[in-house]
Write a structure and sequence with these properties.
alpha+beta; Phage tail protein beta-alpha-beta fold; 3 domains; 322 residues; single chain; 13-stranded mixed β-sheet
């Protein structure tokens, strides 16, 4: 046989990374069973064997690599059954490792921090929006899994979540998780704060620390007292945006089409721009002046002109990328 099929190689690589699915492990087990007596399997599996750290995997590969050509003696009937059991147990262990690892050690490729007096607005890969307050830290996947939308937060942030009934959105703050399917809420979770607070401005969320679970709706706040580990809910009157949103947001080297999307979402305006400047990159600081004045400065930086059609509709005419 000599060489392994490409799909088997891919499965071995996934096992090494802890990413193999149960279906892929079953395919590997079937391949091993069918080629148990093939001497070429020894060389093909050698590199995988040397990196295997599970005793059951080593036992399984020992059987394969020590088999070579069939020996001239009668193999006990029970041996194939033992091998089958080992295959089955190995598959269970690998699946458990994969799902446990995915739950306990997720990989967050994007890591964003704000300094003191610095604010940032972020569009997540699923098109949800985040407004990150000062001295805060957020982590999330650049390419989230189909069944998981999850961010880690330390500090304070407002989330406007894109609706998806089948894939809940979770904000993890230490032991606490805040889950919803599409709404607007603010999470206050600075590391040194005595409590975590979740304010629901729109929709509803579920908050849990693993032992307790509370649902909160529009104009309700959930408090998690860190020392006593108690969850409490209160009815409050919440503004559409927290007070800290009135401070400035800095946009550094952002594409105009992304800036337009964020400004329309945050300021509840309509901004029309010509397609030829949609890919232009700009620098902008908003919040220190009116939105109209800020848009005027952006238009002028692109050699364009700002027009205001009504209270909430603006248009940038002309302009070129610099």
């Amino acid at each position: 046989m000599g060489m392994l099929p490409q799909n088997i190689k891919a499965i071995l690589e996934k096992i090494g990374r802890g990413e193999a699915t149960a279906k892929e492990i079953a395919l590997l087990n079937r391949f091993i069973s069918e080629n148990f007596s093939d001497a070429g399997v020894e060389n093909a599996f050698e590199s995988y064997y040397t990196t295997a750290d599970d005793i059951l995997i080593k036992e399984r590969l020992d059987l394969i690599m020590n088999s070579g050509k069939p020996v001239q003696r009668k193999i006990p009937v029970v041996l194939p059954r033992v091998i089958a059991v080992l295959f089955f147990l190995t598959g269970i262990i690998l699946c458990a490792r994969y799902f446990r690892g995915a739950r306990e050690k997720p990989i967050y490729a994007v890591d964003i921090r704000t300094l003191e007096k610095e604010k940032k607005s972020i569009m997540l890969p699923d098109s949800s929006f985040v407004w990150l307050n000062e001295s805060s830290h957020i982590q999330y996947r650049s390419n989230p899994q189909i069944n998981r939308r999850e961010v880690l937060l330390e500090g304070e942030a407002t989330f406007e979540v894109k609706h998806n009934d089948r894939v809940p959105f979770a904000v993890i703050t230490g032991r606490l998780s805040t889950v919803d399917v599409g709404t607007r809420f603010n999470v206050y979770a600075y590391k040194k704060a005595e409590q975590i607070r979740i304010d629901v401005m729109e929709g509803s969320v579920y908050v849990s620390d693993g032992d307790q679970k509370i649902s909160a709706n529009h104009n309700e706040s959930v408090f998690y007292l860190r020392k006593s580990a108690l969850l409490q809910k209160k009815k409050v009157l919440l503004p559409h945006d927290p007070d800290w949103h009135s401070l400035s947001f800095d946009y550094k080297d952002i594409a105009m089409h992304d800036l337009v999307a964020q400004l329309q979402r945050y300021y509840q305006i309509q901004l029309i721009i010509p397609s030829k400047i949609s890919t232009c990159h700009v620098y902008a600081c908003l919040g220190e002046t009116s939105i109209e004045q800020s848009l005027k400065l952006i238009a002028e930086s692109l050699n364009g002109q700002l027009l205001r059609h009504n209270e909430n509709t603006f248009e940038i005419r002309g302009g070129t990328c610099r």
